[in-house]
Amino acid sequence: PAVAATAAHSSARTALKTVFGFDAFKPGQEAVVDAVLAGRDVLAVMPTGSGKSLCYQLPALMRDGPVVVVSPLIALMRDQVRQMRDYGVAAGSLNSANDADENRRVWGALRDGTLRLVYAAPERLVREDTVAMLRDCRPSLLAIDEAHCVSQWGHDFRPEYLALGQVRAALGGVQTIALTATADAATRADIVARLFEVEPEVFVQGFDRPNLFLAMQPKGSARNQVAAFVAQRTGANGIVYCSSRKKTEELAEYLRGQGHRALAYHAGLEKERRDEVQDTFQAEDGIVVVATVAFGMGIDKPDVRYVAHADLPKSVEAYYQEIGRAGRDGLPADTLTLYGLDDMRLRRVQIEESDASEAQKRVERQRFNALVALCEAPRCRRQTLLAYFGETTEPCGHCDLCLQGVETFDGTIEAQKAMSAILRTGERFGTEHLVQILTGADTEAIRRFGHDRLPTYGVGKERDANGWRSIFRQIYAAGLIQIDIVQHGRWTVTDRGRRVLRGEERIEIRRDVMTAGPKVKGKAP
Ligand code: ADP
Ligand code: ZN
Questions:
Q1: CA 224 distance to own-chain centroid
Q2: Spatial separation of the C-alpha atoms in residues 39 and 174, rounded to whole Å
Q3: Which of 89, 166, 203, 294 could bridge across to 267 with cysteines, CB 3.0–4.6 Å?
Q4: Which atom of ligand 1 is nearest to the CA of 24?
Q5: What's the whole-model pTM score?
Q6: Is 51 in the pocket of ligand 1 (CB under 6 A)?
Q7: pLDDT digits (tens, 9 = 90+) for 370-409
């Protein structure tokens, strides 16, 4: 098999050059192609533009049976078919936009064994007659594009995707590759659970954007912080994201007052005005657009030199996508994200008040906690970011934390206090109740559980509740405690946590983030 694998590998390289005209694989492609050629099931998580399609197009040239590609968008399907034909590869598609003639031709070519790739919309593929006919053509591989559409927690859920697991079985358990650009752990786990019977080989690659400088700061005056950041980059193309329409207008006006060419953009503007802003940004230089997340979809300006967040984005993925609009040309670009307690509260309230299911809310809370952990990361920001996506890297030397380091203190005693509060209460409580115990708060719940009689009661009086919340987040990020998402966010202590508790290991805590942001008065917790 080793010899066969090597042979497959070298003929894949040859085909890469002779058929597609590419000199080398893009990052991540080679490992995925090798795994597919070795016959393994694969989940490939790679960003948009990283060349996912090649991971099944190339194997299609080297197999007997055709590759069946599931793709949700007819327009994309057509592009790919045209592209394959340009390369001289026989490809066709089955979709509702085809006329009867075209369908007959595709089935004919499939039966003759001349077609290498057949693209099908999921609603077409899940039909029994389609599956039965395809099975007779002995497909060699099922490729599921945009595989995150199977996840009900995503924004792109498509019910037909749920049936693809059965399609796979009906095609005789055909080898399968699922592909997506959506990388977080919850979505990955969901895709695996719904599409595969046996755990596939998972590849997560190519998310690093080394030319982007990453920085995050606690919010003081967001307006002044953003203005200073923009002033250092006067004349460069930039985007500043805000969480509300009103803020985009206020901040744009303020920046204009400082002499910048700043334009506001949000979904509340007339379509005409939105197009105007977008066209101006696209065509001219030296403009900063102050926008809500509505801005960005249709933008492909390569030389955006900076992206700032005046408010915290919604999730790590949103953060990644938004900063990713800078430096598409590969040249250095800067990012700055501000975060404050008000952002954090707002997001938590949004999650609790949404009409999502309890399971979905749990996932959303987890996603948001990951973003908070990124804000307060005690080491390289890029490492923390990529680790969230499932990639491991060395410290980057190109982020605020690598450059400046962070002011930390030995937080072993604090961690021990927090963890003994967790253990003394039987690992049954979440952050808020534990913070009340540590700060010695006198509440109804504390008295009802008799927690005012615990030895840990009030041992953390020297810090306020926000300080303790930060310590919980940080020891969570460091892997000392774990959240039980099934049971309402109760904390449990990990093995590493127990080592710290016994004094066998120490833990550094960041001081600068302990009291991040102004206090918000009169808002729900
Ligand atoms: P994705 O589906 O991941 O968004 P695509 O498969 O559409 O990305 O590929 C993005 C672009 O990269 C396409 O224009 C494709 O032709 C090109 N591409 C793919 N593989 C390579 C390669 N090995 N070398 C150079 N260009 C490539
Ligand atoms: Zn770094």
A1: 29
A2: 10
A3: 294
A4: 23
A5: 0.76
A6: yes
A7: 898 899 888 899 998 998 888 878 999 999 999 988 888 9
